[in-house]
Amino acid sequence: MSRGPLGRIAKKLAHKRSDKVAVVRLDGVIGHGGPGRPGLSTTSVEPILTRAFDIEHLRAIVIVINSPGGSPTQSEYIAERIRQLASEKGVRVLAFCEDVVASGGYWIACAADEIYAAHTSLVGSIGVVSSGFGFVDVLGRLGVERRLYSAGENKVRLDSFSPEKADDVEWLQGLQHQLHDTFIRWVRQRRGKRLSAADEVLFTGDVWIGERAVEIGLVDGVGVMRSVVAEHYPDAEITVVDAPKPLLTRIVGDQVRASVVAEELIGGAVSALERASAVRLR
Q1: How many other β-carbons are positioned within 10 Å of the β-carbon of residue 130?
Q2: CATH code for the domain in which residue 95 is found
Q3: Which end of the chain is more exposed for a tag (fewer CB within 10 A), N or C?
Q4: Interhelix angle 72-89/166-191, nearest 10 degrees
């Protein structure tokens, strides 16, 4: 009887009522991505987070992160949204570091109540970096005259085609220090007494592999997602949450599936007719 219709219904009901651990993947550069690979932002992440936190019988949220960092603002927004939803739903958040969780990626990881990494994960890079190029002599060699007009004495800073000014570099470094201080405050707020190394070690912009990250308090433990979840929530079911597919993708996907089904039906009918003809010819 358990294998019949009633058994299947009972199994579905048990599935719906069982505790869930929702898994969300955050993979890529934070902010604007490259062609064909959009970056992580509040706009792209919000639908996934909302779906994950709305799951019934939710015990915990797992955030699997693989990101070298990117936009400080988007990192802050995503991390803050995770904390808001976790507080509203009253669930714990676990972060798992994959290949690289650095800079803004680690900012987001700190939104979790616990952080785990693989033995070979690269974690940290609590710092700020800016880069550019200087082309001061290039235009002159090409016989090109650049004309630049602005209102406001500081409107044009660190222009790639103008000589570098010491005041501009000092201004940029001031911004970097402010951002760095904000990053450090966030890490201290979230990690608290778990941080076990001096500031001169933690906040230099360095990265560490998993076990060393545990030793200095940036990570709570070394472990892979399914093993840690099974240990923490042995009776819960893991539910992977994907981003909602755009309407066009859903329509095209449905058309493809319908086409495949039609081909299978036609192929089955033709095979049946061929078998029937063969029987008659006998």
Answers
A1: 10
A2: 3.90.226.10
A3: C
A4: 20
HEC states along 155-170?
CCCCCCCCCCCHHHHH
Retrieve residue 231's tokens.
Answer: 């240990």
Question: Tens digit of pLDDT for each residue in 252-261?
Answer: 555 555 554 4
What global pTM score does this model have?
A: 0.79
- Per-residue pLDDT, averaged over 198-222, amounts to 96
Does residue 259 form part of some domain?
A: yes
Residue range 182-211: average pLDDT? Answer: 96
Q: How far apart are CA 256 and CA 203, in angstroms?
A: 51
Rounded to the nearest integer, the mean pLDDT of the chain is 85
DSSP string, the chain: -TTSHHHHHHHHHHHHHS-EEEEEEEES-BSS-BTTB--B-HHHHHHHHHHHHT-TTEEEEEEEEEE--B-HHHHHHHHHHHHHHHHHHT-EEEEEEEEEEETHHHHHHTTSSEEEE-TT-EEE--S--------TTHHHHTT-------SSTTSS-S-TTS---HHHHHHHHHHHHHHHHHHHHHHHHHHGGG--S-HHHHTSS-EEEHHHHHHTTS-SEE--HHHHHHHH-TTPEEEEEPPPPPHHHHHHHHHHHHHHHHHHHHHHHHHHHHHHHHHHH-
**Residue 232: which residues within 8 A CB-CB, separation 6 or more?**
60, 94
Question: Could you tell me if residue 173 is inside a domain?
Answer: no
Same domain, 228 and 257: no
Query: Considering its fold, how many domains does the chain have in total?
Result: 2
Instruction: State the Cα–Cα distance between residues 257 and 65, nearest whole angstrom.
Output: 32
